[in-house]
Every structure is written in structure tokens, then in C-alpha cells.
Amino acid sequence: MIGIPVSYFQRKNRIYLLLACASVCLALAILQSEFLWLKPPLDEIGRTLYKSAFFVVLPFRVLVAFVLPRIDHHWSLLHHLISTLGAPFFYYAVFRVAKRLVGYFRAKKLRVERPLDSLFDRRQFLARSAAGSFGIAVGGVAGYSAIVEPGELAIRNYEIPIRDLPDRFDGFRIVQISDTHYGPYTSASFIRKVLDRANELSPDLFVLTGDYVHFTPRAIPLGTELFKMLKCNLGAVAVLGNHDHWEGANACKEGLHKAGVQTIDNSRVFLSAAGLSDAPLDRDSLCIAGLGDLWEDRVSFDEALRDVPRSTPCIVLSHNPDAAELVRKNDRVDLMLSGHTHGGQIRLPRIGAPIAPSQFGKKYLGGMCHGPNCPVVVSRGIGLAGIPLRFQVPPELVQISLRQV
Ligand SMILES: [Fe+2]
């Protein structure tokens, strides 16, 4: 300690105190979302605070996720806490390392003889301009991905030929809505706009393929009630996603039931001219079956396809498209409809999607995919999960038209 002035330690303490305050502010900004974003008209302020704090924390959170294995959902809360409270200290450490590196290279440069000062100045000017332009471009793309693209909506149309399709179902239209993720990232007003647009498509049937809520069980009542808006003759059927299980499967099922949506996890319904039926119908019918979520529930084809006559075409709903790999050769699955992967949410030029929450890489990222024993249409979803950004992967509604072969 001899030779080091006392003010040095006072300065150090002040810095650590400031970093601790910044950590607490970040944690509060994230925690407040539980209380603010559910209460209009403060919900947008709460949502913005949450997202801003999340972006600050994100680089350190990615590092934490690599170091700490994610064993189950509860571990992500631990990641959240460590990355929120540790982020300011992480940035301070990065700043100190960067400062030392700059000092080292500057000292090295000073030792090199500079023949032309004017040339050095020009180079410095060009380097600074390039860095500035790069910063503005990154900021622009980030702003677009956080604010503009998540509010867009694409309608994807698919015409699917189905074997043995009864005459009455030729041209039958299904609109699939997936991954609405109501919560601190996706607002109820945006989901309402999407559902209005879905109603305008006036399909014969709505199917919902999971992840209706995000981040907290407090999102369940409104996140499921929103589907009351859906209007069509045959109504809506649904399966749950992993996020619904994380926040409360029973409460989600109850909320959907109140909204007039029938849940069919590991079960099925039959469609006929008379409407939806739980009892098997032999002739002129179409089966819509549902699987439990692959991560958080059982996946039982035996229960989902129970008593389905071999002559009845069957469309299977599965939140997670990886379940397509489990379809056996003698299961009658004419088409699978899935969500979950969100198209990766971010698609970079040349690289594609850097994130794909699937065991099979980019195979089931979005659009028309092919499982070993059935075609799979994967919706890129409506809302946001993980990172609150969408780039080159806008929210989408999927419209399926069935055709006789
Ligand atoms: Fe999702």
C-alpha cells in the first residue's frame, strides 16, 4: 500500500458503488415489467423498460448461458439474475481490458517512426469515419429489428394435396396462428390486430399451435382470452407449447376453454358437415389430432390417433416440429402443422438464421418442411421469445387450402 495514494482506493470504491447501483437499476427495470406492462396505459412504458434493460444485459447473458448449463426452465431464472446483476461489472472489466490494449498499441506505435504525419491523420480520419458509419448501420438495423419488423405481418398460403380427401373438404381452408407469446415482448394490441386480420381471411377452421404466453403466469388470463375474438363456423382447436407449460398448462387450458377454443393435446376431433365431433366418424370426415409438447409433455401418437379409421385423412398439430421425426410409417399423418422455431427470428444475409431451437438444426426452421414420414408446415409465429428482435422473419399467419389428389 506504501506509495499508493488513499484517493486511489476511494475512487475504486466509488466505481464499484456505481456499478452496484447500475446492477440494481437494471434488475428493477426488468422486474418492474411484471407490474407495469399488465396495467394500461403504463404497459408500453413497462415493455420498453424491460426490452431496453434486456438489450443492455444481453451480451453478458449470452456469456453466462455458455458457462452455466441450462438444465431446465428454472435455470434460466438463475441466468437472468446473474446476468442482470453482473452485467455492469462485466462491461467495466471489458472497458479496463480494452483501455489496456489501446494503451499497449499506442505505446508500440509511438516507437515506430512516422514519416508522414499528414498520412497518419488521413488514415485516422478514415478509420473513425468507417467506425462511425458501422455504428450507425448497426444501430439502424437493431432499431428496425426491435421496433419495425416485429409489428409487420405476412400471410403465407399453402395448397396441400391430401389423399382420400372427401369432396366436401376440397378447398377447405385452415388458418394457423402460432406463438403469440403475449407478455413483456408482445403486446395485446398487436395480437388483436393479427386476430382481426385472421378473421378477415374467413377460414373454415382456426388451429392454434402453442406458446400463447411469455415470461409470467400473470400473462395467462389475457393471453388466452384474446382468442375469443376468433370467428368461424367450426371454431378453433389448439395444442399447448413449452412456454404455456412453463407458465401453467392447466390455467392455459382453462383460459382457452373459456375463450371457446378446444384443446386437443394427445387427443383428436373429427370434422364433418355437422361440425366438430369427439366420436369417430367413418365417412366423409377429416381428423384433426394434437400432440403434447415435445419438451414439456408426452408425445403419444397412439392417444392422438385413437380410433381414427385408416380411410380418414388426418392433420396433426404439434407445437414442436421435431415431433415429425417420431411419426411412424404406419401412423396416418397427412400433414403436420407446427410452430416453435419462429424461423430463428433473425436471418442474416448469407449466414441465415444463427439460432434454431431444434435438435435438427435448420430443417424445421419455417415454411414447408419434410419429415421422414409426413410433410410439415412450420409457422414462423407472431410474437417474440428469447431475443426481442425480428430481422427478415416477420410475424406470419399461415393459410392452408386442402386439395384432393
Ligand atoms: Fe414460441
Explain what you see.
The protein has 405 residues and is α/β, with parallel strands linked by helices. It has 9 helices and 13 strands. It has helices spanning 6-31, 33-36, 43-67, 73-111, 117-148, 188-200, 220-225, 242-258, 301-304, and strands spanning 154-162, 173-177, 205-209, 236-239, 261-263, 267-272, 275-277, 286-290, 314-317, 335-338, 367-370, 375-378, 396-404. Helix 1 runs antiparallel to helix 4 (73-111) and helix 3 (43-67) crosses helix 4 (73-111). The chain starts with 5 loop residues before the first helix and ends with a strand. Bound molecules: fe (ii) ion (FE2). The site of fe (ii) ion has 9 residues, from loops.
Features:
405 residues; alpha/beta; seven-stranded mixed beta sheet; six-stranded mixed beta sheet; 9 helices; 13 strands; elongated; binds fe (ii) ion
Please specify the SSE layout and strand pairing:
Elements: H1 6-31, H2 33-36, H3 43-67, H4 73-111, H5 117-148, E1 154-162, E2 173-177, H6 188-200, E3 205-209, H7 220-225, E4 236-239, H8 242-258, E5 261-263, E6 267-272, E7 275-277, E8 286-290, H9 301-304, E9 314-317, E10 335-338, E11 367-370, E12 375-378, E13 396-404
Parallel strand pairs: 1-13, 2-3, 3-4, 4-5, 8-9, 9-10, 10-12
Antiparallel strand pairs: 2-13, 6-7, 6-8, 11-12
Helix pairs in contact: 1-3, 1-4, 3-4
The structure holds fe (ii) ion (FE2).
Residues 179, 181, 211, 241, 243, 340, 342, 381, 385 line the site of fe (ii) ion.
